[in-house]
């Protein structure tokens, strides 16, 4: 559902970028198939002119980014998909408003940005890894800056130093340059673990916000050596980031994929957005603040919205305001709202007994300690005061275990039993089943019977394996010895076996021990 004060206008195609004039009364929308200027009214957008007209429409009219000069009311610049940087003059007579085309880049131009105080200076960042500073008076390239990194995704002039600009690239690097010197950058550091898609200078302090594919927004203090001040964790790759005017700690962002909403973050609370605007039905492609109370956004769904901050959704209000945490030593910390909800009593029930004062509440096994100004560490106290200057909206109470008589007592505190076991367990030096037996005895002494049973199971398993390894293997069965005598023959076998040794015969001419075989051989010789 669109809030009542949110206005919207539909386009012929998706818009890739938008830019405001210096008075924030007009907005230009640029995309592959759309290039229009609208007047921002109280209740509607009114089309002023359509710049995508004429017979010779080419890639110079298909824009990835657009910028509106902060000084010259009628000067626009676009970054084209064919590598051209096109300058437009809205005050030019005739239908065509194209003033000049710079074709110095060899690849697609991702970003164009006007100088904040010099109306004739325009800088661009391209996929070819170079940045070019154009002089609009001379209609030529004034300087070329070679990043020696991968493609440049965003370039922004600093509002604090007139000749300084920042450039971010796809290898996660941030470079700071002096626009008067093109030999080398002033500073270079790795800001993210993935490609950096956008950056934005804080209008009041020397902070630089960077947005990356690693799903984080980082805030860098650029006074001197770059120092990371804050990190915001999001759910998707961040494509654009813009500081909220008049709010030092608030920044808006939109994602490249998955998340179609625009989120406004308080950098001191990095995990939950301060406000969310979920009117878009496709990925948001650009953000521009009208004031601290309203901003414009466009998306791939061919729509442009004006959002009012008063109608934002606040995710922090959906979260459970009550929480509890238990430490390893058994300490319990819980937080509740300052004004707890009254308990619901059943109808016709007797009035409840008056509750004891907060300081007298008793938790079995726990004592209570109210936090004081000195109970937190200096770092935690400073972080709490920095995050909530007016004080926290919750009451935080801390409980600690009541000291027990001895670790082996029947009702020993869990933390005491844990420490008792941890100090007496053995993990090496003996066979596993003996270690498990010792540890089971330690757990039994601490009255941790479930843990004792686990150690007993470990002992049984390891002991069975050790016994199996120690038992000698049985010898293999011995084969029967081979027999020299032939097996006894059956009568039929004896009848047909011509090689059988026959009974001996006594022949006078052969001797008393002559066999039948010998008779056969002697007969054959004769």
TrEMBL record:
<dbReference type="InterPro" id="IPR019775">
    <property type="entry name" value="WD40_repeat_CS"/>
</dbReference>
<dbReference type="InterPro" id="IPR001680">
    <property type="entry name" value="WD40_rpt"/>
</dbReference>
<dbReference type="Pfam" id="PF00400">
    <property type="entry name" value="WD40"/>
</dbReference>
<dbReference type="GO" id="GO:0005774">
    <property type="term" value="C:vacuolar membrane"/>
</dbReference>
<dbReference type="GO" id="GO:0016239">
    <property type="term" value="P:positive regulation of macroautophagy"/>
</dbReference>
<feature type="repeat" description="WD">
    <location>
        <begin position="145"/>
        <end position="187"/>
    </location>
</feature>
<feature type="repeat" description="WD">
    <location>
        <begin position="189"/>
        <end position="222"/>
    </location>
</feature>
<feature type="compositionally biased region" description="Polar residues">
    <location>
        <begin position="512"/>
        <end position="526"/>
    </location>
</feature>
<feature type="repeat" description="WD">
    <location>
        <begin position="102"/>
        <end position="144"/>
    </location>
</feature>
<feature type="compositionally biased region" description="Pro residues">
    <location>
        <begin position="347"/>
        <end position="358"/>
    </location>
</feature>
<feature type="region of interest" description="Disordered">
    <location>
        <begin position="347"/>
        <end position="375"/>
    </location>
</feature>
<dbReference type="InterPro" id="IPR036322">
    <property type="entry name" value="WD40_repeat_dom_sf"/>
</dbReference>
<dbReference type="GO" id="GO:0034198">
    <property type="term" value="P:cellular response to amino acid starvation"/>
</dbReference>
<keyword id="KW-0677">Repeat</keyword>
<dbReference type="InterPro" id="IPR015943">
    <property type="entry name" value="WD40/YVTN_repeat-like_dom_sf"/>
</dbReference>
<keyword id="KW-0863">Zinc-finger</keyword>
<dbReference type="GO" id="GO:0061700">
    <property type="term" value="C:GATOR2 complex"/>
</dbReference>
<protein>
    <recommendedName>
        <fullName>GATOR2 complex protein WDR24</fullName>
    </recommendedName>
</protein>
<keyword id="KW-0862">Zinc</keyword>
<dbReference type="InterPro" id="IPR037590">
    <property type="entry name" value="WDR24"/>
</dbReference>
<feature type="region of interest" description="Disordered">
    <location>
        <begin position="467"/>
        <end position="526"/>
    </location>
</feature>
<dbReference type="GO" id="GO:0005829">
    <property type="term" value="C:cytosol"/>
</dbReference>
<keyword id="KW-0479">Metal-binding</keyword>
<dbReference type="GO" id="GO:0008270">
    <property type="term" value="F:zinc ion binding"/>
</dbReference>
<dbReference type="GO" id="GO:1904263">
    <property type="term" value="P:positive regulation of TORC1 signaling"/>
</dbReference>
<keyword id="KW-0853">WD repeat</keyword>
<comment type="similarity">
    <text>Belongs to the WD repeat WDR24 family.</text>
</comment>
